[in-house]
Amino acid sequence: RLIYKLAGKEFTDNRLSSEEWKKFKPSTPKGQLPVLEVDGKMMCESLAITRYAARETGLYGSNSWEAAVCDMVRDTVQQIYEAIIHNMFVATTDEEKAQG
Questions:
Q1: Which residue from 17, 28, 36, 39 has the least number of CB within 10 angstroms?
Q2: Tens digits of residue pLDDT in 51-91
Q3: d(CA 51, CA 43)
Q4: pTM, whole model, 2 decimals?
Q5: For residues 35 and 88, what is the distance between their CA atoms, to the nearest angstrom?
Q6: Residues of 9-30 as b/e, b for ≥16 C-beta within 10 angstroms?
Q7: Contact yes or no for 98/83 (Cβ under 8 A)
Q8: Please, are residues 4 and 11 in contact by the beta-carbon 8 Å criterion?
């Protein structure tokens, strides 16, 4: 969503209630969210969606080096997110939390 907003591209942002998700889930590629639907085709996995959206909106760089820098930034954000989730929901000791 953020990439499409930043690029000024129109898109439909469907948010599902629990009941709507139960009905929609079997139609998704892997039974999970998020999904991106383009021309009747569905894609899942947030990193794949992010990279696709960046390419399609011209925000993925103009050459291989710039694309790799985009990947580096996105991968760093993912690592930070995973460390936060680990510390909030998995780690139980201070030592585990320090390891991230």
A1: 39
A2: 999 999 999 999 999 999 999 999 999 999 999 998 888 87
A3: 12
A4: 0.78
A5: 25
A6: eeeeeeeeeeeeeeeeeeebee
A7: no
A8: yes
